[in-house]
Specification:
This protein is mostly beta strands and about 300 residues long. It is built from two helices and 17 strands. The chain is globular, with a radius of gyration of 20 Å.
Length: about 300
């Protein structure tokens, strides 16, 4: 999906970045896991082959709805707890589009609303705690700059700080959803497969991510993709743990799959993804073992 952008200023100069000013509870996002990524064609596909390139109208504005469901099983030693968040609904606006002379696109993005789909009978104190936890997500805004292949070339934005690890996981899902679907340089046909490799910051540790795309249908400017995601991580110190705790990651693996329907003239595809991950860590003194398993789903619907 194409992400957010800010318009260039008059006279060919850039507009001042509105997201660099200090805001309580908000920090500038790390751009390292947004920008670039190595795209490698695995198979060109069959039949007629064409280069996939975005053709977003200048000034275009769009919005989409996103639903995230996250379940976490975490514990130390033999004691484990399972927590599943109720569906969290986001409304996000994107645009206006600015088509730069170098062929790149810039989009503004802002989360307009965040809501919880709480089941009947939810205790008021739990409802209040969950609402407080997700409230800062409604303050996410920024822009992305992408080329006509959907490769992210620059990004600025804001993200909440001081939120629980499971909320950081949801933020990771949001960040992934807001990135464009990248296309290979080469012309492709039905059945084409390509991969995008990058290092992703998961707040507590870095992972190596490989996303594989398969083109299963293409009619005019509309196409359908099958998507698989694989994440692995080497042993490393964990960061940003609650209460300043110290631990070391021993093993991590994540796998996901889903589908996307895109239109080369639109910023927003229809996306459905599920993802599972598992990690094992050891406290700094080596006396306790920590484990965490997550399962999540992300659905994006253009409005």
């Amino acid at each position: 999906m194409m992400g957010a952008a800010v318009l260039a200023g008059c006279g060919g100069g850039e507009s001042p970045d509105p997201f660099t000013a200090a805001t309580p509870g908000i920090s500038a996002s790390d751009r390292s896991d947004f920008v670039g990524g190595e795209t490698r064609l695995l198979s060109p596909g069959a039949g007629a082959r064409i280069p996939l390139r975005y053709q977003i109208p200048d000034g275009d504005r769009e919005s989409f709805e996103m639903e995230i469901v996250l379940g976490v099983t975490a514990g130390m030693g033999a004691n484990h707890t399972f927590v599943e968040s109720p569906p969290i609904d986001f409304e996000v606006s994107m645009g206006p589009v600015h088509h730069r002379p170098d062929g790149r696109y810039r989009y503004e993005m802002k989360v307009r609303h965040v809501g919880l789909d709480l089941p009947e009978g939810t205790p008021p104190e739990l409802a209040e705690a969950l609402s407080t936890e997700i409230a800062q997500m409604g303050r996410i805004e920024g822009w992305l700059e992408v080329d006509d292949r959907g490769i992210t070339r620059d990004v600025r934005g804001s993200r909440p700080t001081g939120v629980p690890p499971r909320t950081q996981t949801m933020l990771g899902n949001i960040r992934s959803a807001l990135q464009s679907i990248p296309f290979p340089e080469e012309p492709v046909g039905i059945g084409a497969r390509w991969q995008v490799e990058r290092t992703v910051d998961l707040h507590t540790h870095d992972v190596d991510q490989v996303v594989t795309y398969e083109l299963v249908d293409l009619t005019g400017t509309r196409g359908q993709l099958r998507i698989t995601v694989e994440q692995t991580a080497e042993a490393q110190p964990l960061h940003n743990l609650p209460g300043g705790a110290q631990a070391r990651l021993d093993a991590y693996v994540g796998r996901g799959n889903g589908e996307a329907v895109f239109d080369l003239t639109s910023m927003t595809p229809l996306v459905g993804l599920t993802f599972q991950s598992a990690m094992h860590a050891t406290t700094a003194n080596g006396t306790s073992e920590l484990t965490m398993e997550t399962h999540s789903s992300v659905t994006v619907r253009p409005r």
